[in-house]
Design a protein that fits this description.
Mean pLDDT: 92
Strand order of the largest sheet: 2-1-3
Helix content: 25-40%
CATH topology of the largest domain: Peroxisomal Thiolase, Chain A, domain 1
CATH class of the largest domain: Alpha Beta
Radius of gyration: 19 Å
Low-confidence stretches: none
Order of helices and strands: HEHEHEEEHHH
Number of domains: 2
Structural class: alpha/beta
Largest sheet: 3 strands, parallel
Length: 187
Amino acid sequence: MQFENVYIPYGGYWSTPFCRWQGSFGHLHSLRFAAEVGARALSERRISPEMLDGLYLGLTIPQQFSFYGAPWVAGMIGAPGITGPTISQACATSAKVITAAAAEIELGMHSAILALLCDRTSNSPHIYYPNPLGTGGIGDREDWVWDNFGHDPYAKNSMIQTAENTAKKASIDRAAQDEAMLLRCQQ
């Protein structure tokens, strides 16, 4: 699909600050932080939350109360009357949120959607899944980030191995990888 009616207004985009793994933002709640930064960014750009008719939330790593997702964030930014989906697609969450929001604009289902993406991989949740059939009724557990970084259930390998396989297939040598890493550090 080619989008003809979709655009991001000049200056209508922003990003929360980034920090390294286990860095100074490792303790922050990603939805609250994104809503705080989003509300401030809307205000600084003189974009009224009332003009929004949808909010698409991208969230890969669950946070406490993320069950409420987009409606909660909408309320925190001052737009309690809107909502939309909460999208999670591993490493493609951002791309999927932008594509889904753009498609809804293009199809005329919305006129102004806030695509808000937030994650925190540091200090991710430890999740317990009830399993009454487990030995002694003990459930299953998962360390959301570590277990999933370490094992893709479909590919049957770690994310690191996927990156190595991709680099090999695309003939990206170690020097090119190091150069990209240094550029990202500088940015």
